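Quick note —
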Amino acid sequence: MLREKIKQLSAQYFEEYRSIRHHLHAHPELSYKEYNTSKFVRDHLTHLGIPFTVMAETGVIGIIEGKRSHRVIALRADMDALPIQEENDVPYASTIPGVMHACGHDVHTTCLLGAARVLHELRNEWDGTVKLIFQPGEEKNPGGASLLINEGVLENPAPTAIFGLHVHPLLEIGKMSFASGKVMASADELYITVRSKGGHAAKPYLTADTVLTASQIVVALQQVVSRNNNPFSPSVLSICSMQGGYTTNVIPSELKMMGTFRAMDEGWRFEAHRRIREIVEQVGKACGAEVELEISIGYPSVVNDHALSQHARSLAEEMIGTEMVEETELSMGAEDFGYYSQQIPGCFYRLGTGNKAMGIVSGVHTPTFNIDESAIQTGMAMMAYLGVRG
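Predicted structure written out below.
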């Protein structure tokens, strides 16, 4: 059976692709700066004999054609790293100070490269076309997915469906999880500046207190979710940074805040933007301070196509067994895969990479994040299987 051949080849090539993951992990690159990573991917596809094009400067789009091209399936992996100093004591630790693959994109890229090799080797045994999307800039607005879509990644040939995986350290090794419908939130960035002429702390009546104004804005914004949102529709607003002032007796003339707003419902998302703007402006006016608000529109929510996700789950059950497949929980984290799922049916699923017995439990976006690397074999096999059966 084709499934068994995919599993056999994935096992056969596992050690080679684990080494590839080590190379990628040791040489991380930030969003939209994935020049060496992109070259590595292009060189590997060239070695395999898989044609490709370059989009959005560092994105790499490969094409594998089976026996007949009546169907086109897209498989996506992101390539960028995070501005985090790695703390893992491993031989393949990051060699770039302050940059680390702390979200597993090195794993995603490795799994797709491995799947590409398997698919290309078996290309005379399956029908259709697989489009490989090695995407830049998932970690930073506006999101590499949006750039690739604008440049036509979902055209010529046009995929009928797209799949993407994400490592999940809280899911034990050997498992995968799937869900239909809403799975991840939208994410918009809030930048608020409060200004006044400033003044002596002993004479606050001669100025508008920027610290007090900012504090009231933070408190007032909490009602956006608690009193304006339907409680059955998950939403989060967090102010995460407040910067201003430099001593004990001067009211600063300027104070800056940064935060995030997240939602599962796209209609509520933009209604909330209106409410946020009203509150910031009105509190500033009431306090006598000048306020400026920028809402940087980020990624849309990730919504998995119901039929496609159910089908993908059934394929995972065939691949690893029903008992190893779980339901994906909702996450207020964000992913620019949402741009793809707005355009065509998509399925974003999770690959278990945790191993409590080995102490591999650190979450993504932490300096000690790592994986049980046997997940690579499962990941490349599943992506290949989705390519031929998705």
